[in-house]
Amino acid sequence: MSDILIQNVCKTFSTKEGEVQALKNVNLSIGSGDIFGIIGMSGAGKSTLVRCMNFLEVPSEGQVLIDGKSLGDFSEKELRKEREKIGMIFQHFNLLMQKNVLENVCFPLYIQGKKKPEARKKALELLEIVGLADKANAYPAQLSGGQKQRVAIARALASDPQILLCDEATSALDPQTTSSILELLKDINQKFQITIVIITHQMAVVREICTHVAIMKDGEVKEQGLVAEIFNHPKSQVAKELISRDTGADVEHVVTKPEIQSGEKIRIVFSENSAFEPVIANLVLIFHEPVNILKADTKNVGGVAKGEMILQFMKDSSNVAEMKEYLKEHGLEIGEAD
Ligand SMILES: Nc1ncnc2c1ncn2[C@@H]1O[C@H](COP(=O)(O)OP(=O)(O)OP(=O)(O)O)[C@@H](O)[C@H]1O
User: Fold this and answer.
1) Which of 38, 208, 227, 248 minimizes the number of CB atoms within 10 Å of its CB?
2) In what order do the strands lie in the sheet with 332-336?
3) Distance from the CA of 151 to the center of ligand 1, in angstroms?
4) How far apart are CA 240 and CA 248, in angstroms?
């Protein structure tokens, strides 16, 4: 397990058109064993920040500390050694297309000086973990996107990393495959106690898997904290925007109890202050629990919701009080339904 501390990190690129300030005084604290999401729109500085975490990009100012040691103090040789502790996976997998799956996973082990039999044994164990032992002799071109990412994950695990950096690792995948890769990352986090940093532009990914999140815009961290806290009480405009765009379509969520047996019914009234955001959809996404809409009579009047709805919660739900609270916090009046 390792922790990462980003202190006052700035990164400026010089281009023909002038200077680009990709990171502006970024401060982050990523705890050991966290699954930490970094989210923002294109150009927010996410990739630059994650590349600073293993010094593939050297910050123009500030420090990156892994387990309290500043990467800036390391020699090139020490840095190479330190990087073995930090695995990385990418959106487009970056596999060696001329090598089969087994050899792709063996590659970092050969670089470490492992002999072929030892490397192959370990690579096969890793392929077992990612559920691809039967594809050891296949070539990347013969695999689906999800399978390619599993190979990339096995390869990243080959050097027994303590940190795994994932740069848009599910952006090229469909919702169902995204969900299975996120499950695998969660398992890996728990099984190997690896700290995972996930760069994404999809709030659904953060919601599904991350414990903590930092929200970036224009090279700055606008908001950071516990995922549940930010989903329930977003403060920055960018957090509110990202949450309201989260329709749940990016990740297939498997609801364990799809059938709603009749539980408590409530009437909710969209009052003057209710913004017409998908409050009910977000409620279901956040609490991972279906609700029945028994009656809906609402209209969008210039961005303000008007009307009422009758909702029914699941029988024996333990979340009813919190769900009602969530609805009230979003400007809805709650009453009893007949
Ligand atoms: N090597 C570079 N040279 C010049 N400018 C760069 C370089 N790398 C990144 N930038 C600029 O820095 C800013 C942040 O880029 P970065 O790739 O970190 O953002 P991002 O949030 O990861 O975006 P995306 O989701 O599109 O990958 C952008 O304006 C980008 O053009």
Assistant:
1) 248
2) 292-301, 304-314, 262-270, 332-336
3) 27
4) 15
